[in-house]
Design goal:
4-stranded antiparallel sheet, single chain
């Protein structure tokens, strides 16, 4: 059973940017918006050296870590080959222009 938490309006997340949500249970969660207004959420730590993904560059459905340029798929949290690793993804939904995060 999911516990959906209202985060913000989609418009409050910068296009090709992110917003960080603090969670006692999960730590920092990065919520991203791409150029197609799709919204994704992953744990805000790169699987490589725990770099802050929220400070990375969003392109398509991926984010590039600002520390060592690992590319992470925003839907799954998986690193793109040749890199290997995963950061936890979180479910998001948009209702009436508002973003909800499943915790």
């Amino acid at each position: 059973m999911s516990d959906w938490k209202k985060i913000c309006a989609v418009s409050e997340i910068p296009v090709l940017g992110s917003r960080v949500v603090k969670s006692e249970k999960h730590g920092d969660i990065a919520v991203f918006r791409n150029s197609e207004d799709e919204v994704f959420a992953v744990h805000d730590k790169c699987p490589h050296k725990a770099g802050p993904l929220s400070q990375g560059i969003v392109h398509g459905r991926t984010v590039t870590c600002p520390l060592h340029s690992w590319k992470i798929q925003l839907e799954s949290g998986e690193a793109i080959a040749p890199d290997v690793g995963c950061t936890k993804p979180f479910q998001v939904k948009i209702e009436n222009g508002e973003v909800f995060l499943s915790l």
